[in-house]
Amino acid sequence: MKQDTAIPLKNNRLLGDQLDPQTPAAIAELIETQLVRAADAAARIESEGLVVRDMRGSVVAHPAVAIEAAATRLAAELIKKHQRVGNPGTGGGFLGDMEI
User: Fold this and answer.
1) For the segment 14-59, what is each residue's pLDDT rounded down to a tens digit?
2) What is the mean pLDDT of the chain?
3) Which residue among 10, 38, 63, 69 is buried most deeply as judged by most CB within 10 Å?
């Protein structure tokens, strides 16, 4: 993970109150890493496009599409598993309600 793109979990307004206080720090850091990875992949897709050319010159889906999807899915699974009980808002918030 790039040092400059890491968002300290304590200051992450999207996730800060989503997790159960008993969630191990390693899990919280893994969720944060996946969210940053998904954001990095989305930025690459935005700048380079949804498709790229492979070594043979064929047009293929940008590899970052799969990276973004996998990182988002893992973050959503972990948030759902470790979300704060009785979390106010949208019934789990950010990615906690996402169908996996």
Assistant:
1) 566 788 888 888 998 899 999 999 999 999 999 999 999 999 999 9
2) 80
3) 38
Q: Which amino acid, residue 13? A: R
Our CA angle for 19, 21, 23, nearest 5°, is 70
- Residue type present at position 21: P
Cα separation, 77 vs 62, in Å, equals 24
The pLDDT of residue 84: 83
SS3 59: strand
> Coil, strand or helix: which one is 88?
coil
- Residue 9: count of CB within 10 angstroms of its CB: 16
Contacts of 12 (CB under 8 A, 6+ apart): 32, 35
Question: Domain-by-domain residue ranges, the chain?
Answer: 24-87
For the cut 60, the answer to whether the pLDDT of residue 86 exceeds it is yes
In angstroms, the Cα distances linking 96 to 14, 28, 38, 78, 99 are: 11, 14, 16, 8, 9
